[in-house]
Amino acid sequence: MTGQSHRGAVTAKNWIALLAIIVVASAIGIAFMLALNWFPEQGSNVAPMIDTFWDVLVIVSVPIFVAVTTMLLFSVWRWRQKPGEEDLDGPPIHGSTKLEVIWTIIPTIVIAALTTYAAILLVDIQAAPAKGTRVVNVNGVQFAWDFETETPAGPVKSGRLYLPINEPVKFNVRSKDVIHDFWVPAFRLKVDAVPGITTTYNLTPTKLGTFDVVCAELCGLGHAYMRQTVTVLTAERYATVMAGLARASGAKPPAGGAAADVAGEKLFVSGNPATGATACGACHALKAAGTTAATGPNLDEMLTKDDAAAIMEMIVDPNKEIVPGYSKGIMPANYATTLTKAELAALVKYIDQSVHGKG
Ligand code: HEC
Ligand SMILES: [Cu+2]
């Protein structure tokens, strides 16, 4: 057998073998890709639509990938250079109009079909919400989310998002500083929070439980801390929680005392998820609280000369003076709104006593 005849045109037998490889490998590839658990649980009405779209993309693209790779490997093997052929030129190749037409038309049809599907899906998902749909104003600020649910009795603010199950909700997303992105992976949709404009999307939560809210746009050094949760409740529980939140926003500060110290430590270590106050301990080391984070200065070392009033000012207005060696804008500047006066007082008292060894 001469090299030429062995390595000439692709025979019918070759084609059958190649086709068999492509079919089998595609079937395995598709089965594997569909079996993988790509996404978190489905928490909204649009999640199944998005996940189905993903499945369709997988089913269409795996065979294309497999076919291209198979033909590539076959060509490399079949027409590879053999010893002694180093100085030979390959045969002159002429264009093939027929082939070019085929490989232009097929991708055009595939892309056009998928794009049409995606466009129809997008229009479906973005359909204007019915009148009377619950509106939640979502505000992004470096580095926290806060939420304002519109109710007939006025807006109810919260740091953690609460939603009733199986009721449509429309989000008006805004930013107070840089571009953030409001994303609840379990709900699937996300949209940028852009300063100066309001972006929106609407959906219906379909699963009870607590899901992550994350910022999906790198927005500064504290981006990774810009997380919240959304809790989807039954209509009954939701009404109770909203009533509680409405009361809390107008509540009078409770009296100080021993209880306040305990609350101070708790606020330091865990913040107040219900109002969106980020835990101080996530960024600061404080011996008494047992926290060791180093994103912000060590408070035992940094506050030795500061009294309670000074500490209070540093918490509510952290950008007034920046500790040397640290950047402006990492410490959340919203504690004056996410913590009540009573909480702030308890927190300051706790820090003051912890640092100065009193109490
Ligand atoms: C996301 C991280 C982060 C969180 C959360 C955070 N801080 Fe800070 N904090 C910093 C950084 C960074 C600095 C240094 C830059 C500056 O001065 O603003 C700082 C500075 C400070 C200072 C010195 C401020 C000054 O102006 O001298 C104090 C006091 C302080 N933080 C207390 C707190 C307390 C109390 C909390 C919780 C209520 C808290 N921080 C939450 C990151 C954080
Ligand atoms: Cu952000």
From TrEMBL:
Protein family per UniProt: Belongs to the cytochrome c oxidase subunit 2 family.
Gene Ontology cellular component terms for the protein in this record: membrane
Pfam families, per database record: COX2, COX2_TM, Cytochrom_C
Every Cytochrome c domain range: 259-355
Principal subcellular localisation of the protein: membrane
Keywords: Copper, Electron transport, Heme, Iron, Membrane, Metal-binding, Respiratory chain, Translocase, Transmembrane, Transmembrane helix, Transport
Phylogenetic placement of the source organism: unclassified sequences, metagenomes, ecological metagenomes
Protein name, as recorded: cytochrome-c oxidase
Gene Ontology MF: a single term: copper ion binding
The keyword Coiled coil is assigned to this record: no
Enzyme class at the top of the EC tree: translocase
Domain annotation Cytochrome oxidase subunit II transmembrane region profile: ranges: 24-129
GO biological process: ATP synthesis coupled electron transport
Transmembrane segments: 15-36, 56-80, 101-123
